[in-house]
Amino acid sequence: MSLRARTFTQLSLAGALLTLAVAAPPALADAERGHSVPLRVATYNIHAGAGSDGVFDLDRQAAALRALDADVIGLQEVDVHWGARSQGLDVAGELARRLGMRASFAPIYSLDPVTAGEPRREYGVAVLSRFPVRSATNHEITRLSTQDENPVPAPAPGFGEVTLKVRGVPVQVFVTHLDYRADPAVRRAQVADTRRIMARERAELPGAHQFLLGDFNAEPSAPELAPLWNDLRDAGTGAPGTYPAEAPVKRIDYVTVSKDVRVRDTTVPPEPTASDHRPVVTDVTLPRRTPGRD
């Protein structure tokens, strides 16, 4: 081959490679190289299965959850055989079954049944996941019980954690429901507990991406939430309100992520009736640090 012909061939090949590089979107190129993994995460306070109209309707709630098309969902105010208000159902298990997902339930309260031999009456938070749950833990944080006549702040369960492998990428998902009272003192203690537990769990699984999902019962600028933003990013910055569902006036429901997670988009679907809160849905990209398998 002549020098002229060889030079023309090399230039043609270089041009073709340049065209491919320009034509391929960066995100797609990263995904093809295995550098990142997409994930859709949501949070929803389901009001024990009752809508904003006060009517228990699990079909309506399952439809609202299905519409989110999320891979992982944190739920708050979840009844498991609690009583008549939720027809004695295992609400976490029922929703998981209807959505074809796995459920991990972390009770805040676990009480003896009214009738001997029946299941325990439980209420708490849950995670629904399309991915297998590798491990699950129910952590204690400071709480002011609603079941005691004269409660005092004390450690109690109901801060749920699950560990997942998302296409080989380790993920720790925490779901919480912070205190609802106007006095922020208990929420302040809960935030301190949350940061301590998440730091400890992060050290136990180096390289894992972390998510904290939940109803924080405080708006983003609340002073008691400020320490969280040292460790986590509020994925819903600029998103509309979430409560009350019919006509939201404040944003108290959150998807938050560790700072190594890339947030692509966050929405608050206009769902006014399935619960007294609106859900929050976030699309993220997880950097892939090490090769792995599902």
From TrEMBL:
It comes from Streptomyces violaceorubidus. InterPro entries: Endo/exonu/phosph_ase_sf, Endo/exonuclease/phosphatase, GPI-anchor_lipid_remodeler. It comes from the Bacteria. Residues 1-29 form the signal peptide. It holds the Pfam family Exo_endo_phos. This is Endonuclease/exonuclease/phosphatase family protein. GO terms for molecular function: endonuclease activity. Residues 42-277 form the Endonuclease/exonuclease/phosphatase domain. Keywords: Endonuclease, Hydrolase, Nuclease, Signal. Residues 263-294 are annotated as: Disordered. The keyword Signal applies.
